[in-house]
Amino acid sequence: MSASLDHGLPQPAHDGTDAEARPVFLTEPRVLGLPASAWPRILAPIVIGVLALALWEFVVRWKQIPPYILPGPLLIGQTLVADWGTLSGSLLITLRITFMALAAAIIFGVSLAVLFTQSKWLEMSLLPYAVILQVTPIVAIAPLIIIWAGDINLSLLICAWIVAFFPILSNTILGLNSADHNLINFFQLYGATRWQTMRYLKLPAALPYFLAGLKISGGLALIGAVVAEFVAGTGGTESGLAYRILEAGYQLKIPRVFAALIMISMSGIAIFLATSWISHLLLRRWHESALKREN
């Protein structure tokens, strides 16, 4: 009976391959919403960090090191919680300067990179001065900038911008010059203007390079803001986190120094993760560096 029913039903078309020879695609298991292969990369640094903190706390207690020389992690954590109100306000001031400097670096860096690739004469005239700004230590010129700017916040912004500017400029120039020359010739063959070639070919080709520079400049903007605050040494309600470190150092409140350093480090890590996420979001569908591979 079943054989007769089978003959009466339409049979699927045979594609000429054996079922056993067809590839089987396996889905990677997920743990707490993440692929299982991602967890070792997450847990390994966490375990190392916990062990290092435990060893640090053990050595401080065993050697009875006074907190004004080297405080333990537990005391630093307690200080971070107790002084959160003061330190968080100063951190926001430092981050405000950081993000403003990064935004200015993006605007000026990308704009100059586009102009330089459109005019080699302009690039030869101005790029050496950008290199001079990059190689000159910001600590050496920060006092002059503070004097010339006349405004502390403006001088801090300029110092942070100088540090963050060059990676975006140089990486974007490299990306714009790395566009496929065969495609450039193809655009020229069909009568595309220079700005059409820039918009539809060179800028997309430069995007991965720009994003790489952005990840570098994000951390450098924070470093530039902190260094400028150290040089300025401004106090009061509008003081950044660098001044809190100086103040705590003068008063031998070393646990507060470490607490402020932790906040700066965590902010730098957050900026790097944010820029990395933006890079992945923009490149994941088409660029080789962000595409997922089997191995």
From TrEMBL:
Keyword RNA-binding in annotation: no
Record InterPro entries: MetI-like (IPR000515), MetI-like_sf (IPR035906)
Coiled-coil spans in chain: none
Record-annotated membrane-spanning stretches: 38-56, 68-87, 93-115, 127-148, 154-176, 206-228, 257-283
GO cellular component terms listed in the entry, alphabetical order: plasma membrane
Domain of life: Bacteria
One Pfam family linked to the record: BPD_transp_1
Name of this chain's protein: ABC transporter permease
